Amino acid sequence: MILDAILSNGCHVSGVMYQDKKMLLAVDIGNTNISCGIFTGSRLVKRFSLPTKAKSNYQIKLKPYLSRNIDEAIICSVVPDATKEIVRAIKSLTGQNPRVLGKNIKVPIKNLYAKPRQVGQDRLVNAYAAARLYGYPAVVVDFGTAVTFDIVSHKKEYLGGLILPGLNISLDALYARTALLPHVKLARPKGLIGKDTKSSILSGMVYGFAALTDDLIGRMREKIGKNTKAIGTGGNISLIGPYCRKIQIIDQDLTLKGLQLLRGDVSL
């Protein structure tokens, strides 16, 4: 059965539902959205999302998609308060006690950050997934609430990366910190050169972030190897990815796939 793209409760979902006895629920809690995926084996059979801010409604929002058929659940989160509520909702709806990255599970990649605990679990799992799925060295560019660059060495080590304000944060700041510029909703620009204020802002955001991304990927390749793979992911990758000349692979579900891979590499 093909699932509807937009459901009446406001959650986005896509994919095909398959019947299988073993199911893994993977949850990526971000600052803006919570992305969820249900896997049978390595196949992502169902994907849906809900806004992170809807704390009191998590159980109501999740109920249409979850049942006692879920055998395992694993969570990656950068929002501690939301984590507690999601864990409680999953336990109530499925009977399973979810494992949480950084608490019950450690991402199996050598972390060379000066202070390893400062690295977000989403960044580590993205680096791990990129190395497993696409090889290394690699740079992962995640276009989410923030834009992050995460680097995997030729030895499959997590080297570190960069953090920038995301596209929507930048749009909000431009509006909030100026007297005359309008608040613009993120969308594809009509062309490189804007013909009015709105189109100029969109061109600046999309082409500007794309050029920034390409330049940084080029610099990374100079530093860690010209064959370094560039993988794009995150909520805004489908919009900005086509404008980035040096991103070779677009995988919007990289984090969820990384959580699924942990099922085989780490005992759940």
Helix and strand element order: EEEEHEHEEHEEEHHEHEH
**Average predicted confidence as pLDDT:** 89
CATH C-level of the largest domain? Alpha Beta
Tell me the CATH topology of the largest domain: Nucleotidyltransferase, domain 5
Query: Radius of gyration, Cα only, in angstroms?
Result: 19 Å
Given the helix and strand composition, which structural class is it?
alpha/beta
Discrete helix count: 7
What share of residues are in beta strands? 15-25%
How many domain units? 2
- What's the number of extended β-strand segments? 12
What low-confidence regions span 5 or more consecutive residues with pLDDT below 50? 1-20
Main beta sheet, described?
A: 6 strands, mixed
The side-by-side strand order for the widest beta sheet comes to 1-4-3-2-5-6
Helix content: 25-40%
Structure report:
The protein has 268 residues and is α/β, with parallel strands linked by helices. The protein folds into 2 domains: 12-100, Nucleotidyltransferase, domain 5, CATH 3.30.420.40; 110-258, 2-Layer Sandwich (Nucleotidyltransferase, domain 5). It is 33% helix and 24% strand. The chain contains 7 helices and 12 strands. The chain has helices spanning 58-62, 80-94, 121-134, 167-176, 197-224, 237-240, 254-265, and strands spanning 12-14, 24-29, 33-40, 43-51, 72-77, 99-100, 110-111, 138-143, 146-152, 157-165, 229-233, 249-250. A 6-stranded mixed sheet has the order 1-4-3-2-5-6, sandwiched between helices. Strands 7-10-9-8-11-12 form a 6-stranded mixed sheet, with helices on both faces. Helix 3 crosses helix 7. The chain is globular, with a radius of gyration of 19 Å. The two termini are 30 Å apart.
